[in-house]
Structures are given as C-alpha cells and as structure tokens.
Specification:
Nucleotidyltransferase, domain 5, five-stranded mixed beta sheet, two-stranded antiparallel sheet, elongated
Length: about 300
Amino acid sequence: MERDIQTWSCNDCNKRFRNKRREKVAFQKRIWGEYVFEKQTLRELKGKHGVYRKTLRDALTSYEAPEKTHQPRKINLVADATYFGERREKTSWCVVVFRDPKRKENLWWKFFDTETTSAYVEGRKYLEGLGYKILSITGDGFGGLRQAFFDIPFQMCHVHMKRIVVCGTTLNPELEAGQALLALTKTLCYTDGNTFKNYLKKYIEKYQNFLNEKTINPFTGETFYTHEPLYRAFMSLWRFLPFLFTFEKDKNIPKTSNTLEGHFSHIKDIVGVHRGLSRSQMERVLHSILLASTIAPTKGKLKHIL
C-alpha cells in the first residue's frame, strides 16, 4: 500500500504496478483535500505537485464527495442560515444548516436562493424520516423557523436577541430608556428567567409612557412613535420573551446558536481564499466543509469524508 493506493508485485519479475483508476481517484481526493482544507490555491498546488493547472482543474472538477452518513438519535438541534454573494446586487444565496451542538456535527444542509419556512420544513422532514427525534430547536428570530418547528420547544438565541435590541438602541444609547433596555438585555447570559422577567416588568412600569409617545407629521397628519427604533427593540424583546428561557426546562438545550455562528465564520475564511468561484463551484467546496463539520478535520476524519 503506497499513499493509500493498493499496489501489486509480479512474482516473476518483481515489477510493481497499480490500478490506474484508483490512482486517479486518490489524486483527485488529495488535491481536493489540500484545496479545501489546507486552503491551497491553484498556484500553490501547481508548485507543490509539479503538474499543469489544467490537470489540477480537471482533478477538482472530477472529484465527487461521498454522501453524508447518519446515526439517527435524539437531538437538541441548532439551525441557521448564512448568505453568500451581494444582496444589494440580488446575487445572494444561502445555505441552511442543521447541527447537533453536542457532537458538533452538521446533520443536514441545503442551498437556497433565500431563507424560507419551506427550507426548514424540508430539513425537518428529512431528519425525522431517517429516524432522528428532535427534542428542541435553537435559532434566531426568523419566523419561518418557529413555524417549521411549531410543535417543538424553541429557544431564541441570546446573541441574536442582543443584536436585535442593539439595532434599536445602538451600542452607545443616548436615551436613558435605551441605556436601561440594553443593560437589561446584556444580563441574558447570566440571569434566570424569573429575575429577568421581574426586571423587564419594572422597566415597563418606568418607561411605558415614554416608549408610547407619538409624533404627528405636520404635513401629512400621520402619527408615528417618537422613539420608533427603541420601541421596536423593546417590542422584539417582549415578543421573544416566551422563548428566551426554554433552556431552563432542559439543560441540554443550547442558549445560543454559537456552534453555527463560529462554524459559518470559519467557512467564509476558507471561501475567501478561493475568490472568483461560481455558485456551483462554491457549493461543492461548502458541501465538503459541511460534511466534515469543521474546517480542520483530523486525518482520520478527512479520510472518511473525502
């Protein structure tokens, strides 16, 4: 066995030979692994292996990733989507990913033009069809996620909740009501549900009239909330309040979707190395990374997923 390729030896002449097809497939796997997980560019691969760029391109194009293998079980799921391309130029698209945070394993993913309820319904049906039992779902504030998992305990990600509030208060709010709301939101990571709800009740008692203040447009006669961004931030917190402390009922439910947030960030670092890829080419790269569930798989893991 040489470089994971079966070799044979003639008993008469001692000549060694290989299966050319297997040798070609092994070369494709090696090039693909270095291209994706070692972040090697075509120029670097050309210098390393001493072959033409066309040979490398052919190897990358011909490589076929294996299918995901599953071990159906009970899971506390984390789900989210991340976008690629430019939304302003209407060239954006996304990948929706379901991940088991306990094993740090991506269980299902698929590419879409945009994040929709049907995407999450499709992923749920797929996993449940394989035999997975979803005990809870943790994600961001996307309404379609809750609709797809309407009968399963939902945990609102605390990090996303804070981001939503910051959109209305800013990180350095000038208004006292904004400062208080931001300070309260920051306690999510270490306070319990009853304490948080009590403080939120006190906040409402003190600032309700201020938040409900309205201004009349002198030209149109229309009314709008005077402190609309702050009002929206508060209403978002109030709307998600029933889902902020679901984890207290089961210690295995993750409070955040950080397991995917960090994963997405690392994935985009790799994609950034290979600039100029078409969507189909990028999807192939993403598929391999998502199949590995990490950007830095061990040698054993790499051998399994290539």
